[in-house]
Amino acid sequence: MGGAGAVVRLRMQREMSVKRKMILATLATVLAIAIASPAASAEKRGPSTPEEREHAVKLTRGLEQYPFHEGAKEAREWLLSWLIEIPDITVEFCGDLIGPVFKADKNYSSELFVQTIFSSAAFIIENPAQAKNREAVYQAGLEGALRMYESILKAEPQARHKFLDELIEKRDKGQLSEHIKKVMKKCK
């Protein structure tokens, strides 16, 4: 009985690994296209609407709290496509925000990375006067990913990342901005 369970777990881990690789590859491709042709995306449509911005914030906050809800995959797809298409909200992304988790292929690393982008965008929508404040935008993105990480741990306590645990400790001590300032030097 234990052997069969181990085989099923191993098969599930392989499938999850393949899915994560596919997500990261898709994300990298989409982002590369978006970066290479921002003018082309802007020509396709006009600026985001107030309804779209409200929807984006709602989806983002939902993913932070309930990263595994039934529509989570579709929410991520919509947010990513929308952010690429709209000309009026630009989010700089930086894998170094989540350190070694960005390069990991486990424990929802790709979902945590894209959450930094989505949470940064939500911050820009809610605080348009701060849109050019890189430190504030990065901090909002990282805090959103940390909230999502905490939600993931409630459902799957084994999905730990030591680095994120350390960042939560820094956040709780009011020291997260030190990490952000270091990262900003790498991400220009």
Q: SSE layout and pairings?
A:
Blueprint: H1 2-36, H2 38-44, H3 50-65, H4 72-85, H5 100-103, H6 109-126, H7 134-155, H8 162-172, H9 176-186
Helix pairs in contact: 1-4, 1-6, 3-4, 3-6, 3-7, 6-7, 7-9
Please describe what this structure looks like.
By secondary structure, this protein is an all-alpha fold. It is built from nine helices and no strands. Helix 3 packs across helix 6, helix 3 packs across helix 7 and helix 7 crosses helix 9. The termini are far apart. The N terminus is likely disordered.
Number of beta strands? 0
* Main beta sheet: none
Strand percent estimate: under 5%
Which structural category do the helix and sheet elements fall into?
A: mainly alpha
Short description:
With 188 residues, the chain is mainly alpha-helical. The chain has nine helices and no strands.
What characteristics describe this protein?
single chain, 188 residues, mainly alpha
